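Team,

Forwarding the record for the chain on the shared tracking sheet. I've put the sequence and predicted structure together so nobody has to dig through attachments.
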Amino acid sequence: MVFMQHCAPIARAADGERRELWTGSLYSSTFRAGICIKSNGDIYGAVYLRQAGGAVDRYTISGKVDGDGITARHHSGHEFKGYFASGDTVQGDLTLKNGHKLNVRALRGPEPEVDEFCRLVRQQ
């Protein structure tokens, strides 16, 4: 499975989930996404978007990894569809609930706080 090639260096949690931290920017904002990936390819996690003024918006997401493709949705209607461009890069389009599309690129980062991202989302 192609996806496993992308995840090979990522630590596996005791419950079998893979946990990854992805970072990037949108215009003058930055984001961190803690993604928890189940063995069947289902994903869930949280995205923290820090705006230029310092305010932070939190979005819980769910989706699927299938081969090189990844989809993730927020319940409000925002949806990301992308692909693994390389082992440490994901890129694709974020379609906002109003239909506006943004090109997004994220880089895999260190993962120390990903357990906390997953725990927060799992408790909801």
